Amino acid sequence: MKRLLILTLSLLSLGLAQGSAAGAEGDVRAVGQAELQDIFLDLATSGTALPRADLELTRFNVEPETIRLPTGALEARLLSGRQAKPLGQQVLVADLLVDGVAQGRVKLSGDLALFGEVVCLASSLPRHTRIEAGHLQRVRRNLTMLGTDLVREESAAIGKELKTTLQAGAILYGNLLQAPEMVKRNDVVSILAASDSLLVSVPGRVQSAGALGELIKVKNLMSRKEVVAKVLGPGAVQAQ
Description:
- By secondary structure, the protein is of the alpha+beta class.
- It folds into 3 domains: 29-114, no CATH class; 115-178, Alpha-Beta Complex (Type Iii Antifreeze Protein Isoform Hplc 12), CATH 3.90.1210; 181-239, SH3 type barrels (Roll), CATH 2.30.30.
- 16% of the residues lie in helices and 43% in strands.
- It has helices at 2-26, 33-45, and strands at 28-30, 55-63, 68-70, 74-80, 88-98, 101-121, 136-142, 161-162, 177-178, 181-183, 188-194, 199-206, 210-211, 215-220, 226-233, 236-239.
- The longest helix has 25 residues, at 2-26.
- The protein is elongated.
- The model is unreliable at 1-25 (pLDDT under 50).
């Protein structure tokens, strides 16, 4: 009877130990790749205005490969590695915290690219072509290495002229466009000079082409003197 009691107690103790181990195991979870990628993106883009939906992450890697943490609210605290420009390759070191308590350290790395729509030419156009809506199309491209002078809206290009010949599919940049010329060299224009109560107009000959609002040189055909004038529109400039 005594041996049976001891054996029963022993089996009971073993069962409790196994139950405790199972309970402890249930309080631990594996952190998946998707969650780690979200952590990487949060750390890499914190404080920026980069739209998460337009970001693409490639060559993602994490060390250690297997991460098991207690259950609870997971957060990450960046220790080192964040660059001023978050696009491109990033290598980040962070502590993983569960319910505010540090539980491990990870090294996260990957390449971040930003995608978005840019304005391109729908067909090849020669130099000095004035851009119309039908000349343009919007295309989604990787913006990471395209610079900051991209034309992102058609309205920024329509009505302007090409400075150079471009092929179909060419991405438009601001420095490839110019305001259309309102006056050309040798055009005869009216030179306007205004005071508080008087407006004088004399004929002049344009010495250099100019767009709306630009300052150009104009020869006064009355005095034969050259003046600097602001282009007001076709056939009219204002003496400065």
